[in-house]
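Case study.
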Amino acid sequence: MNGLDRSRIEGALAAAVQYSSADEVFAVLSSTTGETTRIADGIVASPHAATEAGMQITLRKGNRYGSIHTNELQPDGVRRAMDIAVAQSAIMPEVEQIVPFPSSIEFVEAASTHASSRTSLDGSELLKRLSERVESAAIRLTGSLALSHNTLSIASSNGLFLHHPSSFVHTQFRLYSNDGWSTGYSERFDDALSEEEVIASLDGAVQKCRAWRDPVEIQPGRHTVVLEPRALADMLKPMMEQFSSRAVEEGRSFLRKLDGSNFVGSRLFDEQITLRSDPRNKDCASLPFTMDGTPVPSATWVQGGVIEQLVLDRYESAASGGLPVPPPTNLIMEGGASTMEELVSSIDRGLLVTGFSGLQVIDPSNCLLTGSTRDGLFLIEEGRISKAVRNIILRETPVYLMKEVEALGAVERTSTTGSFFPMLLPAMRVKDVLFGGSSGMI
Amino acid sequence: MRRRTFLQTTAAAGTAALLLPGPTRGRTSTTEEQGVDSTWLEDAVNSAIDQGAEYAEILFREDATETLQLRKDRMYQASDGFHSGMTMRVFRNGAWGSASVSEWNPGNPSALAASALRSSRIIGGIRRQELDLSNRVSDGKHEWSTPINRDPFAVSFEEKHDFLLSLTEKATKIQQIPFAVANLFLVRRRSEFINSLGAGVHQTFHYTYPNFAVTAFHQKKRRMDSRSSEREAQAAGWEVTGESFDSALETAMQEVLQLQTAEAVTEQRYDLVVHPTLLWDLLFTTLLPHLDPSRLLGLDGARPGDRWLKPEDLGHKRIGSPLLNLRTNSSLARGLASCGWDDSGRAATDVQLLRDGIPQMIPASDTLPIPGTISTIPFSRSAQWNAPADAAMPNIVMDSGEQSLAGLVSSVDTGLLVKGRGTVVLNPAKTLFRVRPQMAWMIRGGKIAEVVRGVEIETSVEQFWNALDVLGGSNEAVTSGDLFPSRALPIWSVPFSISAPPALFRDIPIYSAKESS
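After joint prediction, the assembly is written out as follows.
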């Protein structure tokens, strides 16, 4: 199966934006063609192949907006949907500020490294190999293997057209011991299926799962930690969402000062911290435009600990007369020179954190997070990993990590757990990170 | 076996009409290929058989959804959706395979069949199973529809807006109720099922869910309390909006005002009379998850190691009072899972899910490898057009007793009457829960006394269901269901309803929640 061809996408978008009963139309068409194979406890479920496409349409009639989502993309299906959206707009309240939909005629097609030409994925051999591997380690395997070809295309009645094709192979496995009391986790988003890399990633998770035996309890309190890149990714994603002018204005950001202004230009983080984004980075390619049709350039968010800029959406930028600053679609952090062994070796007593589960922001004003550690929490004693530790509750803000970082490892490609937000992040050592008691999480 | 060409005979015109009614479907193909119609679906089934499938079926679905939300007097959200497409399932050489395509981009019928067969080949190289076609619809054309009086999608936006506004306007006229919200969720699902046994099934489902919430604010006490409507989603049409919403709103308004001045409950153990508007959700969230086949079989990768029930417990382990009897009911009036046939073309069969507090069976699908020693509920539904039919829960009816709600109250010396669905919080193993009902009244000497606030039930699932002592009568049973179940379990991804009576539970620990303001 291949992704949708562009001429059909253009045809469906044209049917929407040429609709004459609205003053303006904005349409986002996304499509996925893919195949997913799931495995649970060595039992492989029937793979499922799917081709789907859907279009979100927003239209303006006078000072009112209507919206609809449809996957009936033949011209009469689109017209029918838009007739309903027009009728719906009549009961919506009038808006005071009309910001026209984007109008620049622009074609954006990133030089994506996600260029797999495979049209199908016979993962049975790989799944067999993985199953054999975990069986020999007396470990059970559950997870999925998916190949997808995707497109995201945006058009407006004001002449905008953006198009981005991408493909990737997503492997996600959770391992657990036969008694169910120990887990490991492996997840990868790759441009193409590399069986050896998937197996290597799984081997790492097997190692963690086997090592996480007879966990000890630790007291709530502050601990020096080494965060692996995926754990760091899960903590940084909510922090980056607060790099927003609107979030600052509404008091939902740590970047808001007491007087209501923001910290742009201030050194808030340690000098080692530099955070950038660049959708065209070949090791970390991502969506080159936002869902509201704004192209995403490369950007620096933090330079040497100094906050450089905030996201400014189209409405705010129109009100202020400036240009919009789109949010990042990936994240690139500058790394350090330390190896993982070096990060661990200087710790007298601390923790190695592999990942988290269910992280949530509980106080937006300082980005305070809570959630459980998962899939490998280990005690570090006298510079060595010594014991498994029962999962505990994190009660910390990533802002603290950025301020108190001690050392950084080399960057590697990672993503947030369970979703695709590509990042290049290092492992990080930080002192005195706050944890609560046992979470009960397995 | 190649599908018999029943559509070419008398049923042909009927089925074609179902798939091609002009104004609603308007199916004019814009693809290079032939558009999707009954012939396309039949071609796909025949092609699968020609390519070697022992059995093939295809389910075409067209879903329409609408969500409207009015906050005070202002429309806050209005969104509609239309989604259609089909999923084919095939069986060959001991393995099932499946593939989906959207209606807009169907490609060639033989390509869909080939894709489904290829997926069966992948799995066939790993494990094999027997083909069991028992109880499948095997001949002729069949139809089933949710009984409705008026199609909600034929009601104008203005009428819907006015209905919602009538609720919020009335509520916010009361000075102490500064905020009210009214919602309307509508779903219409049309499906066409064709299999290689020569059968076709057309079904139409309607789900309508109007609801409201009122919020009162007590200036002096700095208290904010909310009360939402108790009627849950119904398999019905627009007519539900005319069924005592006014009186339900009046009651909610009075109750939320009573709550504002109520005193906190004293923490201790109480006998609880649980209203059906709360009891169904406690069944749904605390007990039924343990019958999820993935969890029970230990295949739930997210939660290994902490399952409460194991396969060997079915038919043996008592998880609740002997009064706890649950039976499935595929034709429950207004039940969200009521249907003529499931999405695998099986006629509904009703079974005893729990007998005398002992679970008897679990839902199962064609593809789930379940040991033959386990009894299963043969009921599969697809969560959306692009998902193959999977194990699903049918509607459930909880056995009733003889007592009226007033009778239950009269048999309590010191206790609480609790009603209204609240947020249920469970531990990861789902063996402990905490819930704050929307309303609670003290019961003293067999009579309902004052409203109390902050009531939180916190106990273990096992203790709670074993504390069931008396069941109320069926005439006071209420049918409720979650239209958008998202409990992270596969079988809850398709809505179903639970009919529950009021019930009396003895000696339940009650805690007092912190003030929220």
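Observations recorded in class. Confidence is low (pLDDT under 50) at residues 4-34 of chain B. The first strand of chain B starts at residue 55 and ends at 71. We will return to this complex in the next lecture.
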